[in-house]
Amino acid sequence: MVGFQTNLKFPEQQRLISMIPGLANAQIVRYGVIHKNNFINSPILLNQFLQVKKHQNLFFAGQIIGVEGYVESAATGIISALNIARLLNNDPMLTFPPETMMGALVNYIINASKTNFQPMKANFGIILPFEQHFKIKNEKYLAYSERALTTLKHFIINNNLNVESIF
Fold it and tell me: Which one of 44, 90, 119, 126 is least enclosed by Cβ atoms within 10 Å?
Protein backbone atom coordinates (compact mmCIF):
# COMPACT_ATOMS: atom_id res chain seq x y z
CA MET A 1 0.00 0.00 0.00
CA VAL A 2 1.43 3.35 -0.99
CA GLY A 3 1.69 5.72 1.93
CA PHE A 4 1.80 3.02 4.62
CA GLN A 5 5.03 4.26 6.16
CA THR A 6 4.66 3.65 9.85
CA ASN A 7 6.43 2.77 13.04
CA LEU A 8 3.76 0.23 13.96
CA LYS A 9 5.06 -3.25 14.73
CA PHE A 10 4.43 -5.81 11.99
CA PRO A 11 1.73 -7.76 13.92
CA GLU A 12 -0.19 -4.51 14.50
CA GLN A 13 0.08 -3.65 10.80
CA GLN A 14 -1.28 -7.11 9.94
CA ARG A 15 -4.18 -6.59 12.34
CA LEU A 16 -5.04 -3.19 10.85
CA ILE A 17 -4.71 -4.34 7.24
CA SER A 18 -6.92 -7.36 7.88
CA MET A 19 -9.68 -4.99 9.08
CA ILE A 20 -9.88 -3.43 5.60
CA PRO A 21 -12.74 -5.00 3.61
CA GLY A 22 -11.36 -7.56 1.17
CA LEU A 23 -7.95 -7.79 2.87
CA ALA A 24 -8.80 -10.10 5.78
CA ASN A 25 -6.83 -12.97 4.24
CA ALA A 26 -4.19 -10.90 2.44
CA GLN A 27 -0.64 -12.20 2.62
CA ILE A 28 1.75 -9.31 3.16
CA VAL A 29 5.12 -9.65 1.43
CA ARG A 30 6.72 -6.62 3.07
CA TYR A 31 5.31 -4.42 5.83
CA GLY A 32 5.66 -0.65 5.96
CA VAL A 33 8.53 1.00 7.75
CA ILE A 34 9.44 4.56 8.57
CA HIS A 35 11.50 6.29 5.93
CA LYS A 36 13.41 9.52 6.11
CA ASN A 37 13.25 12.21 3.49
CA ASN A 38 16.41 14.26 3.29
CA PHE A 39 16.11 17.96 2.55
CA ILE A 40 18.30 21.03 2.44
CA ASN A 41 17.87 24.04 4.71
CA SER A 42 16.10 26.10 2.04
CA PRO A 43 15.57 29.24 4.16
CA ILE A 44 19.34 29.58 4.39
CA LEU A 45 20.32 28.29 0.94
CA LEU A 46 17.64 29.34 -1.57
CA ASN A 47 16.17 32.59 -2.82
CA GLN A 48 12.64 33.20 -4.12
CA PHE A 49 13.58 31.82 -7.56
CA LEU A 50 14.63 28.44 -6.05
CA GLN A 51 18.17 29.42 -6.92
CA VAL A 52 21.12 28.80 -4.58
CA LYS A 53 22.03 32.21 -3.16
CA LYS A 54 25.80 31.72 -3.42
CA HIS A 55 25.80 29.76 -6.71
CA GLN A 56 23.21 31.38 -8.94
CA ASN A 57 23.58 28.88 -11.78
CA LEU A 58 22.29 26.16 -9.46
CA PHE A 59 18.56 25.61 -8.90
CA PHE A 60 16.69 23.09 -6.76
CA ALA A 61 13.16 21.66 -6.77
CA GLY A 62 11.15 18.82 -5.29
CA GLN A 63 11.35 17.08 -1.94
CA ILE A 64 14.99 18.06 -1.49
CA ILE A 65 13.91 21.71 -0.98
CA GLY A 66 11.37 20.85 1.72
CA VAL A 67 8.07 20.34 -0.05
CA GLU A 68 6.17 17.12 0.50
CA GLY A 69 4.10 15.41 -2.15
CA TYR A 70 4.16 14.65 -5.84
CA VAL A 71 2.17 17.72 -6.91
CA GLU A 72 4.24 20.01 -4.70
CA SER A 73 7.45 18.56 -6.12
CA ALA A 74 6.22 18.96 -9.69
CA ALA A 75 5.09 22.54 -8.99
CA THR A 76 8.51 23.54 -7.70
CA GLY A 77 10.06 21.80 -10.70
CA ILE A 78 7.96 24.01 -12.97
CA ILE A 79 9.06 27.12 -11.06
CA SER A 80 12.73 26.14 -11.25
CA ALA A 81 12.47 25.25 -14.95
CA LEU A 82 10.79 28.57 -15.79
CA ASN A 83 13.45 30.49 -13.90
CA ILE A 84 16.30 28.54 -15.47
CA ALA A 85 14.90 29.30 -18.94
CA ARG A 86 14.44 32.96 -18.04
CA LEU A 87 17.99 33.18 -16.66
CA LEU A 88 19.40 31.65 -19.85
CA ASN A 89 17.37 34.11 -21.97
CA ASN A 90 18.38 37.10 -19.80
CA ASP A 91 14.74 37.63 -18.82
CA PRO A 92 13.74 38.62 -15.29
CA MET A 93 13.04 35.58 -13.15
CA LEU A 94 9.60 34.93 -11.67
CA THR A 95 8.25 34.81 -8.14
CA PHE A 96 4.78 33.30 -8.04
CA PRO A 97 2.32 35.35 -5.95
CA PRO A 98 1.79 34.19 -2.33
CA GLU A 99 -1.97 34.10 -3.01
CA THR A 100 -1.33 31.02 -5.17
CA MET A 101 -0.33 27.64 -3.79
CA MET A 102 2.86 27.60 -5.86
CA GLY A 103 3.82 31.01 -4.49
CA ALA A 104 2.82 30.05 -0.97
CA LEU A 105 5.01 26.92 -1.05
CA VAL A 106 8.05 28.87 -2.18
CA ASN A 107 7.28 31.63 0.31
CA TYR A 108 7.14 29.03 3.07
CA ILE A 109 10.39 27.28 2.22
CA ILE A 110 12.43 30.48 1.88
CA ASN A 111 10.96 32.20 4.96
CA ALA A 112 10.52 29.32 7.41
CA SER A 113 12.67 28.89 10.51
CA LYS A 114 16.36 28.78 9.62
CA THR A 115 17.15 26.82 12.78
CA ASN A 116 14.28 24.31 12.73
CA PHE A 117 13.19 24.09 9.09
CA GLN A 118 10.66 21.32 8.41
CA PRO A 119 9.08 20.28 5.08
CA MET A 120 5.55 21.36 4.19
CA LYS A 121 2.70 20.03 2.06
CA ALA A 122 0.34 22.26 0.13
CA ASN A 123 -2.36 23.51 2.49
CA PHE A 124 -4.53 26.57 2.95
CA GLY A 125 -2.64 27.51 6.13
CA ILE A 126 0.40 28.73 4.18
CA ILE A 127 -1.51 30.91 1.70
CA LEU A 128 -1.55 34.66 2.26
CA PRO A 129 -4.60 35.07 4.53
CA PHE A 130 -7.60 37.31 4.04
CA GLU A 131 -8.21 40.13 6.47
CA GLN A 132 -11.87 39.18 6.78
CA HIS A 133 -12.97 36.27 8.96
CA PHE A 134 -14.95 33.41 7.46
CA LYS A 135 -17.41 31.47 9.61
CA ILE A 136 -17.60 28.53 7.20
CA LYS A 137 -14.34 26.86 6.14
CA ASN A 138 -15.62 25.86 2.71
CA GLU A 139 -16.49 29.51 1.96
CA LYS A 140 -12.97 30.53 2.96
CA TYR A 141 -11.41 27.81 0.81
CA LEU A 142 -13.58 28.79 -2.15
CA ALA A 143 -12.53 32.43 -1.69
CA TYR A 144 -8.86 31.38 -1.55
CA SER A 145 -9.29 29.37 -4.75
CA GLU A 146 -11.07 32.15 -6.62
CA ARG A 147 -8.49 34.72 -5.53
CA ALA A 148 -5.65 32.37 -6.56
CA LEU A 149 -7.13 31.84 -10.04
CA THR A 150 -7.64 35.59 -10.56
CA THR A 151 -4.13 36.35 -9.27
CA LEU A 152 -2.59 33.63 -11.43
CA LYS A 153 -4.39 34.91 -14.53
CA HIS A 154 -2.99 38.43 -13.95
CA PHE A 155 0.45 36.97 -13.20
CA ILE A 156 0.46 35.07 -16.51
CA ILE A 157 -0.69 38.13 -18.48
CA ASN A 158 1.64 40.61 -16.73
CA ASN A 159 4.66 38.36 -17.31
CA ASN A 160 3.78 37.58 -20.94
CA LEU A 161 3.81 33.86 -20.23
CA ASN A 162 2.69 31.57 -23.00
CA VAL A 163 0.68 29.03 -21.01
CA GLU A 164 0.76 26.43 -23.81
CA SER A 165 4.56 26.43 -23.71
CA ILE A 166 4.56 25.99 -19.92
CA PHE A 167 2.08 23.13 -19.65
Answer: 90
Ordered alpha helix ranges (H), the chain: 10-18, 42-45, 70-88, 101-111, 137-158, 163-166
**Taking Cα atoms as reference points, which of 75, 72, 66 lies closest to residue 117?**
66
Whose CA is closest to 124, among 152, 107, 139, 104? 104
For 102-114, how does the pLDDT look when each residue is reduced to its tens digit (9 = 90+)?
999 999 999 999 9
Instruction: Choose among 104, 107, 99: nearest CA to 43.
Output: 107
**Which pTM was predicted?**
0.77
Using DSSP's 3-state secondary structure scheme, residue 45 falls into helix
Spatial separation of the C-alpha atoms in residues 78 and 75, rounded to whole Å:
5
Q: How far apart are CA 14 and CA 28, in angstroms?
A: 8
